Amino acid sequence: MNITLQMAWRNLWRHKRRTWLTVGAMIFSNLLLVFMISLQFGSYRMMIDNTLKSYTGHLQIQRMGYNDNPKIRNSFTDIIPLANTLRKRLSNNKVAARGVAFAMISSKQRTYGLQIIGVEPAFEPAVSTLPGLLTSGRYFNDIDAEEIIIGRVLARNLRVNIGDELTLLGAGRDGSIAAGVVSVTGIFDSGINDIDRLMAQLPLGYFQSLFNMNGQGHNIVINAEELTQVTLLKNTVSKILPHELQASESQRGKPNANEQQLVILDWNQLQPGLKQAIQADMISAWFMYGVLIILVAFSVLNTQLMSVLERTREFGTMMALGVKPGRLGTLVISETFLMSSLGLIFGAALGAALSYYLSFVGFSYPGMEEMAGRFNLPDRMYPSLSWLSIFLGPGIVFFCSLLASAYPALRLFFLQPVSAMKAV
To answer: So what's the pLDDT on residue 225?
Structure first.
């Protein structure tokens, strides 16, 4: 340790109470920042997971242009064989094929328009939470069954219950009339009225028959084990997909293997509004964090300014002996550096320990369980601890503290030795 740091360390403990109060404020703010940022990242992760797992999924394979123009004819062939191939090649059962159409649905009394989703009964529960939200009835067990799952709001509007029959009327992929009669086997409650009113599911085999799809579908949904693995999974699927298309097309004798022009879209492309909502929430949160950081910076400024003012005579004597103002300024900044380092080390360590503990046991507040139950969300929040969440907040506090000490240090450049030595 050089002489400047030794002097800075000695000067810190001239007024132990003042030093500990300042360091204590930094420790508390750093602890709070680590915990709040980790909790915020954890809540975003929970929000993304539950939003995507309800329907969208982490990745989707679609025909190019379908995401912007979701018409029934924008489908691709052999969707179930391709899904089976992906499940085998990826060693991942979180892969499910779907078909999407719009139709009119009628009971004896009422008629409504809605979106019809054709699903693979054996694999849909692995990529969507909707099958687990049934409040009555059962989920599909036959891919060709003439059955339907509807939402709570739609069931109330149609005035139907389990076992009742509904009539579907829409347009097939080839422009023909698609009409069928299905039995209600399940009613789900997602907690989101738009989904419960405007969405229903059919077994994919019956969906393809009803809408004259000839084995075609509209998207294959793929979920990763963790959100952080989505990019790696997308790269893996992109390597598998062209090969499988070539094999499929060559078996039918078609010269162009890329006629279908399939694309792989991740959740950022499928749900751009979700990312924007997270960014907006992050901005509002950092406004509050900024207030806390500014308060700590002013606390450091006050401490260092008082320290410089009460040592004016001492600094004047040192300057009279030949010490340059820059050396004295470095001394003041070194004192702040040592205080900020103590605050960063202890604050980050305590915040990380608290967040690590809560990442296992969870964090809850009164009323959270009731609210979470309505939307099929976990009843506890779990902080997401990372190097970024540990050092982002404390690092900004550290930098702002050093910045705050610049003013007391700059005052020394305007100090006159003679007048300083006369200071009381």
So the answer is: 84
Two tokens, residue 392 = 């982002």
Domain borders along the chain are 3-52+274-421, 59-223
SS3 115: strand
- Residues, the chain, total? 424
pTM for this prediction: 0.75
pLDDT, average across residues 247-270: 63
- Residues 96, 119: contact at Cβ < 8 Å? yes
Q: What does the pLDDT look like over 208-247, one tens digit per residue?
A: 999 999 999 999 999 988 888 888 999 888 888 765 554 4
Instruction: Tell me the one-letter amino acid at 399.
Output: F
Q: From CA 102, how far away is CA 207, in angstroms rounded? A: 11
Structure tokens belonging to residue 97? 């094929």
Q: How far is CA 180 from CA 54, 99, 154, 210, 267, in A?
A: 27, 16, 18, 7, 34
Which residues are within 8 A (CB) of 249 and not within 5 positions of it... i.e. 6 or more apart?
256, 257, 259
CB 421 within 8 A of CB 316: yes
Q: What are the C-alpha distances in Å from 118 to residues 49, 53, 57, 121?
A: 22, 17, 15, 9
**Cross-strand partners of 101:** 116
